[in-house]
Fold:
Amino acid sequence: EVQLVESGGGSVQAGGSLRLSCKGSGFTFDKHDMGWYRQAPGKECELVISMSSDGRTYDGDSVKGRFTISKDNAKNTLYLQLNSLKPEDTGVYYCAVVSFGYEGCSRDFGYWGQGTQVTVSS
Structure:
């Protein structure tokens, strides 16, 4: 059974940083594309950043240059470094095993974690 468990969310002031983690199990971690997505209050779910199995990355439109994705295959863990946070970055962040660059948020595709809340205050 594939499981994805996110952690590292919290509350931070604008301009601050957080690092999110996503621990995966039940699949061969280094052979799959993965991504981070977010659901902001009152907005549609969107792609934050995607990473292919061979390490290529693709930024979503709203976070270009501010966030960084990385992974540790030995620990089966995907990371998202959030820098220069803004109040509009507030939302629930999900990691997912989905095709590289997938910009939808349908739970019918791939595997998804339960999410971790990030709240940025001004």
